[in-house]
Amino acid sequence: MDKKDGLLKIDVLSVGLFGLAVGALTLGFVQMGVIPHNDDLAISIICLIFGGIVQVLAGMVDVKYHDQLGGTALTMYGFYWTTMFIVKILGLVQGFHWDNILFLPIVTIYATFSAVMIYLTGHKSFALMLLHIFITAVFIIDILVKLNYPLEYYAGVDHAIIGVIALYHAMITLVNKYTGKAGYLLGKPPFKFKESHK
To answer: FRET pair for 90, CA 20 to 30 Å: which of 80, 81, 112, 193?
Structure first.
């Protein structure tokens, strides 16, 4: 563990990725029809807590450690999950209904953000870059879903892949933090910053 500003620095990325893994796998199984829709309220609460709140809290800790990339990614994805599933819970409990087109701007912005994150995380590790490739893909699929294309199943497959990669990355990061011997399992970063950027 590292020290930063007198604080014991833990790698909160693994915490955020565990949350993402739970949320993404749960949502993916729903979209693929493995988990029935009659459990939608419980599903939404799970996705809100793990996909949303866990990522936001991990991101806030990363911000405190002055890790701009991790802090930005975790908090922004966490707020996305939090927003979408609060809206979903309100719809289920209060019977509110919103048109799909309302969510087109947020999904489009996140698709763009995720595409940029492919390049940025490509300087960290191959696994993290691969995760963001699938995150970008799921936002692109979701744009089409919001435009009423019937692609929810494919979004579910993509979410399941995201969940598996996030779980893998979280586990390897955790093992590497304690043994120092597993980092190579994340793959070498495809891109390198010039020395002046370090």
So the answer is: 112
